[in-house]
Automatic annotation (TrEMBL):
GO terms for molecular function: lyase activity. Gene3D superfamilies: 1.25.40.80, Deoxyribodipyrimidine photolyase-related, DNA Cyclobutane Dipyrimidine Photolyase, subunit A, domain 3, HUPs. This is Cryptochrome/photolyase family protein. It comes from Pseudomonas palleroniana. InterPro entries: Crypto/Photolyase_FAD-like_sf (IPR036134), PhrB-like (IPR007357), Rossmann-like_a/b/a_fold (IPR014729), UV-DNA_repair_photolyase (IPR052551). Keywords: Lyase.
Length: 512
């Protein structure tokens, strides 16, 4: 028998053929290991569709590797030999195969990487070259800065990767950022394309049955699973977006509309985060669409900023600051996450829409996450670990490296402004401007202190008043504090009282 040279572990979010640790495999002497483990599926109550996505994509990836002649060891969740965690499976297979070398590409999540690094095995680690900016490069960039800001990081990334630049290195269109053009509400009569659907094949149906059996207690439905689980289908989803979504993505990327969960969004983040799509190719396709005149600059720039700006920036912050970053709680929040986050049972239409579609599709777009469910959690003073767990559990694309900085830093400002320069707090007026939710809501967005007033309004002013010590000095909050100061003392007291009463109801476990 040929001696076993190399065993390469591939994790559920590393399903890329060009993964660093998969390069140079000897098909005779090397093999690949993939394991479905309960610890990863249960460490938070992941949405059943997310578990199905990862397991099904892993099985399809294993099949594709086998067809290419690679030896694959695959451990299913219900395999009686399955020991339930990545480190324990790694030890079991090390002892079974006795390979000369164990190879792993660095993990997305700190928790998992620590558990593997401390499992007592000698491992050759590879840099995750699927990201444009390595952990070390980000640390170098951050080293001499008093304050990190995504915008400056993003410009560096544009320059370094020569994306949307003129010949002299200046940004195309004369500016780096066209975000101001990307905040239009959806006009009446404009409707998004029907979402691309990918009905489950036999392998996915087997996974759906497995997930239904083991994870029925997790929040969220499996019924609507139609997400791509192969590279080819992920590419088809991307092509569909290029044809039907991208041109309008820029203008309406912040818009929200009742019963329209996807609008002009690509829905590719989950496929990208597990390795079914390649960020360089996505950037190149978007840039090509711009240069060919098919899309406006604000659409191209806005999309590319998400990919090489925010996505790479939050990963850099995560790896620079973990594990302490997860403990951030700048406002000292202690309130429990209301039960309606898990059920959608609330009379606030914006929250009901955002939560129900999250339970139904494991998806909400960034403004629903930031300015509806996130905004409410910020205003209500929810304890950061609880809201972070909710985001990590409920969204198909949520892995901790991307979820934690987005939730703890951007949504909750719990890192004290390390990641973003100001809290994204807003009253119901913002939601009214960017959506049609308020038209059919049980609450009145024009009211702030009456019993049927929009809860976001009083909670917004209450938030500003209770954290004035921390926020008044922030130059980006100057205008909102001027607005607060313009209110009469009587009005301020009424807003405070209404805010107190809403928060007390949350503490009683009431929904509203
Ligand atoms: Fe949301 Fe307030 Fe509008 Fe109702 S009125 S949809 S609670 S913002």
């Amino acid at each position: 028998m040929t001696a076993h040279r190399r065993l390469c572990l591939v994790l559920g979010d590393q399903l890329s053929f060009d993964l660093a640790s998969l390069q140079g495999l000897d098909k005779e002497r090397d093999s690949v290991l993939l394991v479905e483990v309960m610890e990863e599926a249960r460490h938070v109550p992941h949405h059943p569709q997310k578990i199905a996505l990862v397991f099904s994509a892993m099985r399809h990836f294993a099949e594709a590797l086998r067809q290419a002649g690679t030896q694959v060891h695959y451990v299913t969740l219900d395999d009686p030999q399955n020991t339930g965690s990545v480190p324990s499976e790694l030890r079991r297979w090390q002892s079974l195969l006795q390979p000369d070398e164990l190879h792993i590409t660095e993990c997305g999540d700190w928790r998992l990487e620590q558990s593997i690094r401390t499992c007592g095995l000698a491992i050759e680690w590879h840099r995750d070259s699927r990201f444009l900016c390595s952990r070390a490069e980000f640390a170098d960039w951050a080293a001499d800065k008093k304050q990190l800001r995504m915008e400056f990081f993003y410009r560096e990334m544009r320059r370094k990767n020569r994306i949307l630049l003129n010949g002299d290195g200046s940004p195309v269109g004369g500016a780096w950022n066209f975000d101001a053009d990307n905040r239009k509400p959806l006009p009446k009569g404009v409707r998004p394309p029907a979402p691309a659907r990918f009905p489950p094949d036999t392998l996915t149906q087997e996974v759906l049955a497995l997930v239904a059996e083991h994870f029925s207690s997790h929040y969220g439905t499996l019924a609507n699973f139609d997400y791509p689980v192969t590279h080819a289908d992920a590419q088809a989803l991307w092509d569909y977006f290029l044809d039907w979504g991208l041109a309008a993505f820029g203008d309406y990327q912040d818009a929200m509309a009742s019963d329209e969960p996807f609008l002009f969004h690509a829905r590719i983040s989950a496929a990208l985060n597990i390795g079914l799509l390649d960020v360089r190719q996505l950037c190149s396709d978007v840039e090509a669409a711009y240069w060919s005149g098919n899309i406006a600059l604000n659409a191209a720039e806005g999309f590319i900023r998400q990919l090489i700006g925010w996505r790479e920036y939050v990963r850099g912050v995560y790896w620079l600051r973990m594990p302490d970053y997860a403990d951030g709680n700048a406002f000292g929040n202690t309130r429990s996450l209301p039960e309606f986050y898990w059920t959608g049972a609330t009379r606030m239409n914006c929250m009901r829409q955002a939560i129900n579609q999250s339970l139904e599709h494991a998806y909400a777009h960034h403004i629903q996450r930031l300015m509806v469910t996130g905004n409410f959690a910020l205003l209500a003073g929810i304890a950061p670990p609880q809201i972070c767990e909710w985001y990590l559990a409920i969204y198909m694309d949520a892995f901790e490296w991307v979820e934690l900085p987005n939730t703890l830093g951007m949504v909750m400002h719990a890192d004290g402004g390390y990641l973003g320069s100001k809290p994204y707090c807003a009253s119901g007026q913002y939601i009214k401007r960017m959506s049609d939710y308020c038209r059919t809501c049980a609450y009145k967005v024009s009211e702030s202190t009456t019993e049927d007033a929009c809860p976001f309004n009083a909670l917004y002013w209450h938030f500003l008043m209770r954290h004035a010590d921390l926020l008044r000095g922030n130059h980006r909050m100057g205008m909102v504090y001027k607005n607060l100061d313009r209110l009469t003392e009587t009005k301020q007291q009424a807003l405070w009282q209404r805010g107190q009463s809403l928060l007390a109801r949350l503490d009683e476990g009431e929904s509203f």
